[in-house]
Each structure stands twice: as C-alpha cells, then as structure tokens.
Amino acid sequence: MPIWFELLILLLVTYGIGIGLGWALWSRGIAADEGFEE
Amino acid sequence: MIVRPTVALIAGAFLVAIIAFLGGASTGGPMAAQMDRAAQAAIAKAGGKRVTVSFTTNGGWPTRHALLSGAEDMDEGTRARVAEAVASIPGVGGVNWADGSMVAESNVVPLTPMHCQEDVEALLQARTIRFEESSTAFDPASRELLDEVAAALRPCLGSIIAITGHTDNSGSEPGNIALSQSRALAVEEALMSRGIPGNGLRARGVGSSKPVKGLLPADPANRRIEFSVITTVPLAPTPVDTPGPR
User: What's the rounded Cα separation, in Å, for the pair B217 and B183?
Assistant: First the structure.
C-alpha cells in the first residue's frame, strides 16, 4: 500500500469525523436556538 | 452565491485527497529511503547476507511495507530472524517475502488431530486380534482388544479407516484371500457393533501377499488385522451462532 494512500485514508477519516461532529453540534445548536425562541 | 452543502462536502473531500496525495508523494520517498537504510543495517546484523529489501510497491510508489527477496535457499530460522529484525524498525508497516512465505515460522507445534492410527498401532503392537483356526470367530481375549481399538478409533470419526486382513501362506491363496476378507469384515462388524459408523470403514483381505517385514510368509505371526486412516477429515470449526435460513 503506497504511503500516499495510507495518508489519504487517514485524512479522509479525519475529515469525515470532523464533518460529522460539526454537523451534530451545529444541528443541536439550531435546535437549542429554536427551543429558546419558543 | 449559495453553495449547496453536498457540493461543499465533496469539494472538501476532493481537497483532502489532493493534500494526501501531495503530502504522501513529497514525504513518502525520504521516509521509505530512511527505512530502507535502517532495514539494510538490520538485515546485515541478523545475518541475512544476499537478502535485498524493497520499500516500493509494484506501481513504483514508496510504501511502509517491506518486500524481502533473495533468501530462497536460507533456512527458516534465519529468514524468521531477518523478517523480525526488519519488522521491528519504527515505521515499518509489514514484512513479506517475495517468494510468498509468511513473515516468520511459528514456534507453535502443528496440530496433529489424527493420532488414532498411532494409538491403534500401539495397541496392536503388543497384542493381536486373533481368530479361531480357519474361522472368523474372535478368541475371547480379542474381544477386549476390539473394545480398546474401537475407543482408539473414536476420535477419527468421519475419517475413512481401512481394515486389512492378512494370513500366512499355509493353504491355497484364493482360500487365504477369502478368509482374510471375511476376517476383515468380521472386525468391521465388531467395530460397528461398538459404535464406529460403518460408512467410514473399508474392509478388505489381501491373503498372504503382504507378510510382515522380516518374517517368512509361512510364519503364523502374519495372520493379522491392520488399521490405517486413509482419508482424514479436516477439523471444522464448531458452528456457533450461525442461524440457518427460515
């Protein structure tokens, strides 16, 4: 397995985790704001 | 300009891929070269003369996985030492031999599940299954021996076990073959009555054609029954939690 491919897997997994966490926090924040507004 | 989230996600992933490729291409070469130098030193220290190491894939890319070659005629112990020495270098992801063998020879003693033939041979070394003269009836002592033989064959259930009857060369050969055949069949039946499935047993008689090595064909000690495991069944894992179709 080439080194660049190992790096690609590592970075894509990190990217995925980052996107997932970001989306989860962002959507919770939206929900909290909506709740506050009500 | 409103960018749709999906497009942004894909663009981000694409950017990540480019960074990975550029990063890997620029740092991979020096990294592999450094591991190559360390591996050559380790191989020389482990006594692997003529062994060459490559940190390059088939496509020519630098890799962390070492491919060792040039040790086809070396003994397994040295190969194992060389492979372990290379594998212990920091950063090395794995070690393979170009001739396809494993990294190192395992120290684990190989499992020999089919030892029943040896068990039966050990039983029959001291005692013999005897018959009444010119008959297929067992003598009383042989019934006890048959119990022990059946118990020794039980671990090999599922294998094909050959029962071969032999005689000495007194009398006519066709008669001897018929007698040895019927004695082998008598042993087969006796084993079946002791719980060994008949579909795994093959009885045959060879008359006096195969005397015991070192004995004259006329020697009465040639009257014997031999057991041999002719087909073994590989050990299958116990089926656990494998639900069948509805």
Answer: 18
